[in-house]
Write a structure and sequence with these properties.
- The chain is of the alpha+beta class.
- It has a domain of 240 residues: FAD/NAD(P)-binding domain, CATH 3.50.50.
- The chain has 11 helices and 19 strands.
- Strands 1, 2, 8, 9, 10, 11, 17 and 18 form an 8-stranded mixed beta sheet that branches. An 8-stranded mixed beta sheet has the order 6-5-13-14-15-12-16-19. A 3-stranded antiparallel beta sheet has the order 3-7-4.
- Helix 1 runs parallel beside helix 6, helix 8 runs antiparallel to helix 9 and helix 10 crosses helix 11.
- The longest helix is centred in the C-terminal third of the chain and has 28 residues.
- The mean pLDDT is 96.
- The site of flavin-adenine dinucleotide has 35 residues, from helix 1, strand 9 and helix 8.
């Protein structure tokens, strides 16, 4: 098998890259280790930055998102039983975010790829990237029990944190931080208790109220890193959520049947550089952020937009200039997202063993954001997204 761009992984990064390359007249093959149903059901991100929304529309993948997605013009910060709304358009010159689940983004991109794009092989597991430093890189992969080779001009590792592509970048350097807590996340068949996301800081730990649709709520609780989700009964989860979202007014939490429960670890990770020869890394294959800043999927989108532009420039002019700049261009944005995600995480979570002094500092940081327009604007600009490229 031979193609111009071999893409490993059909998450948001790999699927959108294939779409952008198709639109630019560049052929690609996508290899995905899981089956289609698994990829379309995997519950993860739900907040699309303004820039991500624009990219999906321009790529011809925004039609259902515009019909079913929920535009959000703000978030609520909740602490010390108080509520404070951050108004995005007022602080950022009109920007907002869209609530549209990652599962739906992937479904839309898969449908387009199968209808109009190049090959997308499910149950095709990449085993190794070979010859990345040469002009004939290839991917060895197993498809339905048979080992095969995909010969490429370029290979892009969009295979997430646990993929194989990163191992083919020699002399890389990684920067990592793990947190002593995770998120117990639930999906519940109940209308959201608030029409925007609520980020709550409480002495018992952080909680997030989010949604997938007008009838499905997505809620999270900070829990110790080694928590078993099944150790929590549905009633215990609702009781704890109620405590952490408590306010001085008459706001109340709606309860409903929980349909899914899982624990997500929290990690910050960056691999530098994001390129070796003709192998490029994009999305979670190169970097991870804790989900507090809602940046992971949006970073993956920024990477592949930058890479698709560089590959199109190479095809049109023969110049490698933008490909050479790819890693540095992406890493600048990645580190801003890492900083913001770290700030949001340390602002809102209780850290085991924190001193009363540190607790007071956390409350002072929240007080500053909710009383200074400059501090609030900084949060709103970062939340709605850093520029791509
Ligand atoms: C609970 C949770 C909540 C989140 N919330 C948000 C949010 O609100 N906003 C946000 O922006 N981000 C959020 N994220 C992060 C976001 O989901 C990820 O950053 C995003 O999925 C990255 O996309 P990706 O395509 O790079 O990687 P992935 O989505 O991980 O896709 C990688 C793909 O590669 C495949 N693969 C792996 N190895 C191989 C192999 N050897 N061969 C072939 N295929 C392979 C995998 O099966 C997978 O389909 C959240 C994550 C979690 C876990």
């Amino acid at each position: 098998m031979r193609t111009t761009v071999g893409i490993i992984g059909a998450g948001p990064a790999g699927l959108l890259l294939a779409r952008l390359l198709h639109n630019a007249g560049i052929d690609s093959v996508v290899l995905e280790s899981r089956d289609r149903a698994y990829v379309e059901r995997r519950q993860r991100a739900g907040i699309l930055e303004q820039g991500t929304v624009d990219v999906l529309r321009e790529a011809g993948a925004g039609e259902r998102m515009d019909r079913e997605g929920l535009r959000h013009d703000g978030i609520e910060l909740r602490f010390a039983r108080r509520r404070h709304r951050v108004d995005f358009p007022a602080l950022t010159g009109g920007r907002s975010v869209m609530v549209y689940a990652q599962t739906e983004v992937c479904k839309d991109l898969i449908a387009l790829q199968l209808k109009e794009g190049g090959p997308l092989l499910f149950e095709a597991e990449a085993l190794a990237v070979e010859g990345a430093g040469t002009d004939r890189p290839r991917v060895r992969f197993r498809h339905r029990g048979t080992e095969e080779v995909l010969e490429c001009d370029y290979v892009v590792g969009c295979d997430g944190y646990w993929g194989v592509a990163r191992a083919a970048v020699p002399d890389g350097r990684s920067f990592e931080r793990t947190y002593p807590f995770g998120w117990l996340g639930i999906l519940a068949d109940v209308a959201p208790s608030h029409d925007e996301l609520v980020y709550a800081r409480h002495d018992r730990g952080f909680a997030l109220l989010s949604m997938r649709s007008p009838s499905v709520s997505r809620l999270y609780l900070q829990v110790p890193a080694d928590t078993d989700a099944d150790g929590w009964s549905d009633e215990e989860i609702w009781d704890e959520l109620e405590r952490r979202f408590e306010t001085d007014d008459d706001w109340s939490l709606r309860r409903g049947p929980i349909t899914q429960k899982s624990v997500t670890p929290m990690r910050s990770y960056v691999h530098e550089p994001m390129r070796h020869g003709r192998l490029f890394l994009a999305g979670d294959a190169a970097h991870i952020v804790p989900p507090t800043g809602a940046k992971g999927l949006n970073l993956a989108v920024g990477d592949v937009v930058t890479l698709a532009r560089a590959l199109a420039h190479r095809a049109a002019t023969g110049s490698e200039e933008l490909l050479d700049a790819y890693s540095a261009t992406c890493l600048r944005r990645v580190w801003q997202a890492e900083r913001f995600s770290y700030d949001m995480t340390t602002l809102l979570h209780t850290v085991p063993g924190a001193t009363p002094f540190e607790d007071r500092l956390q409350l002072a940081r929240l007080d500053r954001i909710t009383s200074s327009r400059a501090a609030e604007t900084d949060l709103a600009e970062a939340y709605t997204g850093f520029p791509i490229g």
